[in-house]
Every structure is written in C-alpha cells, then in structure tokens.
Amino acid sequence: MGSESENKSVLKEGFLVKRGHVVHNWKVRWFVLKPDRLLYYKYESGKRDSSHRGTIPLNNCNIICPYLEYENRPLVLRLQTSTSEEHFLEACKREERDEWAEAIGAAVQKLNPHKTQTPSSSQNKGSTSLQLHNVNLSQVVDSMYDVHTGIRLCSHVEQGSSYTNCFSGSAVVDWLVFNKLSLTRVEAVTLASALLDDGSLRPIGIRSADAQRNAALGEQFLDDSTALYCFSQSFQKRGSVKAEKSLSAVELSGKVVKRGYLLKQGHKVKNWKVRLFVLRAEPGFLHYYDPSKDDITPVGSISLRGCLVSALDDNGTPSGVKGKIQGNLFKIITQTDTHYYIQAPTHEERMDWIQAIRQVM
Prior knowledge:
Largest sheet: 7 strands, antiparallel
C-alpha cells in the first residue's frame, strides 16, 4: 500500500521506443517520469515488469527535441546525462514527443533552477508564429501526403540532374494557401519553413539547398518554382509509386485519425506485443506496425467496415485472452469473424480508441 505516495510523484508515463546502448536496436519500453529521474520497464506477456530495467538521472540532463539524425525516425528526442551518456527515445507522434520533451525539461529545470535551458533550441526555432495560429504540423504533413488531395509529386530536371517524387517551393505555397492552411503566401512560407525545420520536408537540388545553407536565421523556404523540395526519407518510402502498389493503395490512402502504442495478442502464438496502431478513415482501416522497425510497412491491417468493437470486463480474464494482463482490454470482431484482442495502457485511452474506431466504421 506504500505505492500511493510513489504514484503521486509520477509526472508522466507511457510507451516510448528506446535505442539500445550496446546493440543499437530499438525496443519498446514503458517510461515513468519522476521529479529527478526517468525509469523504464519491460512489458512481458501483457503486463509491466515489477522492477525497472534502467534509470536515466535528470540532474543537469540536456534535451534535444526534435533529434533528426535518424532519417527514418523523425520522432526521436535525445537525452544527454551529466556524465555525457546519451539516450535516444522515439514517440508515436509529434505531439507526444514534444509533450515528453516539455515534461522532462520542466523536471530538469526544477532540479537546476539557475540553468536556463529549454527542451530544445531546434524545437523553438521558427515555431513562435505557428503556435499563435495553433497549427498542428503533423496534420499538415498528413494532409500534404494524402493520396487523393495531397500535394502532387512531380519529376523535375535541374542543370542536367533529374529529381523524382518532388515539388517546387511555389507549389507548396500554392497548396497551403489553396487548402486554407495559410491565409497568405507569407504565412505559407512561415509554415513551410517550420515543416523544413521539423524534418518533414527537405531541400533537394541546387537552388533550395544553397538557400538553406546560406540562411542566416533558422531555415529558409523559397516561394520559388525553381527551388525543389521533397518529403523526408520515411515519407518518400511510403509515398513512392512502388511502395503504394506493393501494399493496398486504397487502404493506406485514408486520412490518419489517431496513432498510438497498444498491446495486441497474437493470433497463432497467444503472446502480447506492443504495436504502433494507426487508425485511418475513408476507408476505415486499423493498421499496426512493429515499432522496433518502422511505420512504413504494416505487419497487419484490420478492415473496420461492418466490424464490432467493445470494451471487455476488467474483472478476471475474458474468454480468448491469455496471460496475466493488466486490464483496459477491448475486442474488435471483423465481418469475417476474426477476433482481435487489444490492450490499452489506461482506461481513458481504451475509451478514446473505441470511440475513434466507431466514428470511422
């Protein structure tokens, strides 16, 4: 019963993907933020380990968010401890990444009140004006990338070099203004600059790359038909024609409604694994990915047309469920009578997911 005071000291908790120290592979861990340290745990058979696997001390810790060195992992933040030990943590979406950075930064600030450190110099760069308009960069990128209404990918030739799956600076500005994501071209350039700074877009070709290198303050996006840009590497892989054809272009074309880490019970081997779930609408699909790899190729998908979704009783272990699970279960039954058992980290998240799934069915 002594855990009540301990729970009060929990500032934030949830799943993050952590890069290993010795072997640089990525594994999902449950993180618990305390006032002076960040603890992480393994999840085994649908239940969190009772003892933590590691501790990251926060005193004089330095935070870089976003950390953009991993081309196919744009949602990483880096923590560097006072002993210069580095930890790389990946969230499931930009908002979650930035919330973790802010919460950790606030804890560090309390431990070191005389140290004037923000969670990230790059996070704040160029974002002030966007915050005034409450622009969600993740939603902007999802809209730009939409198969049907997103920005058109073209081929361009510049000084003898050919570039595919790209777009001009003026095309981006046109698209942002046309879709009412910006009121003016000046606003659109500011928004595009933030996407560039966030790592969602990158310059290609001579003109845009030179402009970026020569920019004195922050990133400079050109409203220019000769300046070329493209999506970051992870979006390129998803957006290329071959990738779309190898998967189902239709089922991956829906608008992303919700993303998050959930536990899923396997069909053949009834073990529980953490998966990154992405809910898409029109058409309604729930895709799940192995977070230790990438969010480009789903390991499975659930068509939500005509399916049933319901919460399961937390008292005892429901029929069809294996392992010592922690509760917060829900079940999806498809039209073909396939049963999916899924576990959310909290009661609130379970209800949020059920409601979101029902809205896109």
